[in-house]
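Researcher: Let's continue the batch. This sequence belongs to Polyprenyl synthetase, and it's 680 residues. Same format as the previous ones, please.
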Amino acid sequence: MTTEIVSRVFPALESDLERVREIVGLADVPSRADLTALTRQPAGHRHLIRPTLALLSYYVLAGPERAAGVRAVKAAAAVELLHMASLQHDDVIDDARQRRGRPSVNSVWGARLAVLAGDLLFVSGSRIVAELGEREALVSAEAVQRICSGMIAETADRFLLSRTEEAYLEVTGAKTAELLSLACRLGAMQAGRDPEAEEAMARFGWHLGVAYQVRDDILDLTATPGELGKPTNSDLVEGVYTLPVIRALARDPALARLLRRGLPTAEAERARQLVLSCGAVEDARKVAGEQAEAALLRLEGVGDPESREAVADYVRSVVGSVRQAGPAAVAVPAPAPASAPSPASVQGDVLVRVVQERLDAWLLDSGLAATREESRHPRWSGMAAATALMWPGADAEQLETLARWMLVCVVLDDLFDEPGLADHAESARLRHRLALLIGGLDDTPPTGGAVATALAQAWERIRLIQPPSWRTRAIGHLLDWLDAAEREACHRLSGYVPSLRDQFPLRLGSAGVPVFLDAFEITCGREFEPSVRDHPLLRRLLDLGSATVLAENDLRTVDQDEATGSPYNLVRVLRHETGCTRQEAIDEVTRQVEDGYAQVDAILTSGPTILRPASGGVGSGGGGSLPVIGVLRVVRDRLAGWRAIHDIDRYSSSATDSGTHLARLRRELLLEHAEARVAR
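Model: Same format as before. Here are the structure tokens for Polyprenyl synthetase:
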């Protein structure tokens, strides 16, 4: 945002700002390269407005022609660190998903790490201020105290229709103007001039801060999301009634009837149009202009005329867009012409048909399906297509190997949901028999009925491509899954519904997420290093993605889950714990799913970019293993396949019946269990 006149009058500004960036970049977690991006991720400081103001204030008083001293550069860096910390905390408080066109830190890393990273940035900035001296530390602490007080007042006044202009300006002066004022004051203090000059620069920064915030509030109403870098009209929806809204409320009573908590999108747009149509935005622009002029008046008599004119030019570049901003037209793209299927897609369809035909034959040969009709059960017939999405580029043998394994896992899960499983003891016997089969997979191929045969045949293919370490881990995950599946069956039979606190851990266990992650490693052709598997961003992606996919599945199966008494469905748990209506619970879970996929997309889209500077550190992918960045890209490319698995819900039914194969397989396993006990 540096203008031509600013660059000419203050020739060292760009190089000094680069020195600021170097200091800011030192704020990280020592010895944890995998967390470096957490505090270095761009967070709205592209233009470095506050450090620029600190340096300009120094130049005006110390002389425009030379580079800033070390103390001035440190002061500028400290203010930027404090600003970055406030942004991280603000985004967590507001649950904001974007910051200046990029996913916010909390959207990518989660609220806990975002808050802690904000704390780290705040302490880093405060330490630098303390190094400058006691006076700097005191004025900084006082400014931060006023900033926090302003944020508290604004939060307390949310959705307050009687909010006054005086209250708005008081909060604006505290939460925004104080930091710009602090930047100017700290920069001026390093020039060693008289207190009157320091105070003049500080008051200049304060008035500029008010103008800047009013400008920002106007843009929230008038800009497009692309221009603003985040969703627009958010203040109205969040109940933060800014100067244009306060003026509009005094003029149009219809606006007050619209504004409330939980404002739907359509009504929020109507409210925005009412604000735009009554002249309130033009009034706010005048206020912003007046504050900008007041800022420039504070410069009179400070420094030389050319420096003052350069600073004035910078002020106009910062707040000048207020005068031109206005509602932008929405461009509606023309529909894309229909295109013929590509040769690759046709070839893929043929491959899927071939693999599905092989699966149908295997289902009959192994005994999982007793008839041709059973082999075409929807729960099974979509497996080839789903695995093709999960493993793009795989050949028929690879797809069949994965599809066989996934089919066996689906059968294991479905057996505990089968309606004929009617008592706890039977559930325990079923789990015990399956545990014996799975526990011996890598030693002695299991023998017995259809499930034992299918397990042995599917595992034999897995043994050929996966190392012993993977197989040991996968068997352990399967055994854990069986325990969770038995627990869910017992909860269903007893009518137990967990608390919201317990719902996700229980749902995660019974869904067998680690088992599906093991299958994901099959498609990558390698086993992930622990440093990659345990990377905090991948663990966040796993938790968030699992919760979202499972909640989406709960929405799709809520009718059947209610009928069968499925205990972990999130809609049921919400109703049970909060007493809300069924539709309210569905709406809340729908919102969680939409928000979850937005955050997953943020991680998958921005993750490779923000991790690239640290890609040579922990989890860089040595020894033939995929690096973290590579895993994120693979997940992004294959997410549709993993969602497709859940699209084949457990209540799918064939044209003949919905569960005779499960009842038959369950009886067979229980008979094997009884025969084994007699033999012993």
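Researcher: Any comment?
Model: Residues 582-611 form the longest helix (30 residues).
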